[in-house]
Amino acid sequence: IISENKDIQDSIISIPKILDVFFPSLLEFYCSIQIQGQNSSLSERFQYRIDCIKLIKYLFDFQDFRSCFSMNIENKLFKQFIYFVVDDTMYFADHILDLLKTIYIANQDNRNEINLNLNEEIQNEISLSRNNLHYWLSLCNFSIKLMVQICSFAPNYFHDELVLNEFTKLILMFLNSFVNEQEYLKIDNKEQN
What we know:
- It is a single chain.
- 75% of the residues lie in helices and 0% in strands.
- By secondary structure, it is mainly alpha-helical.
């Protein structure tokens, strides 16, 4: 909403303490939302993180916030934020690959099934999996766009050993899928997808 209101855009940076207090608090909030061990649902927790990402991406449109982020490369909170963004992206990608497998297997079962009732159940499973796939793809897209934005002004954050390890895992996960699980990545009926 803020980014759509032109009158507010120019005045946002002038709010007292927004850079010194609000921005680090926003990063800390993002990092404090844990994936496991909470009472809230997984989708609620990720929705909070995605809302944080949207706001952070907006703030990064301002040079003062980009500079603040770039100058705090040794700050534990800022490094932790990058780690969680990369880790979330890996988590999203893992769900995407699992759903692609589920859709592929359900499509295979659907082709081989003669019983119409079972066929309808399989179609429902495919439909649900496709909806979930859309959800995880959109989450992954938000995270990747944020990482690209950060790389444009603070690429050194991605040189941290923990972050590099996460990127290595992410790349190996995709390479494994492309090499060993190619059949799951095919789209048979492109019109339907």
